Amino acid sequence: MPARPLSDETLHLIDAVRDGLAQRCGAAALEERTLFGCWAFFVQGKLCIGVKGEDLLVRLPPERHGEFQEMQNTRELSPGGGMQGYFWVEPHGYARSAQWAFWLDEAVAYNPRAKASPKRRPAGTAPAAAGATPRKATGSVRQKKPSALPTGPRRHSIFEADD
């Protein structure tokens, strides 16, 4: 079954996440691919942030799970605590640029301590040879070349006006 096309709002949010992570980590550290039905961004090979519809999937420190659970406009990925540290953030939770920066900064700060996921391989292929260089996913979403990334903060229309 062919994949459903992504809405303009989702594509815009994906672009905003890509730009935000590239500014914080550098474009070379990013990898993008689909995971669990969402567009996932990996930093240094570890899941950092995902986009599904208009929601963000943010990977955060498990030891602060209770703190994030109490925040408005967030919900656990897996209610009942099965996936500590993974949260969906609804649009009202990242609508202001300060909120947006908070979620990206928290996810990026936790990333060096996060456990790396096993590398996936396409069905029907042999395991990669030792020392093989992982391939960067290009994705089908408006991929930008690293040289085309903005040098300063870029304002996306996903944000409400900051007063």
Automatic annotation (TrEMBL):
Chain positions covered by the region annotation Disordered: 114-163
Xref: InterPro entries: TfoX_N
Highest taxon of source: Bacteria
Occurrences of domain TfoX N-terminal (ranges): 29-109
Low complexity bias: start-end ranges: 123-139
Coiled-coil region list: none
UniProt protein name: TfoX N-terminal domain-containing protein
Species for this entry: Paracidovorax wautersii
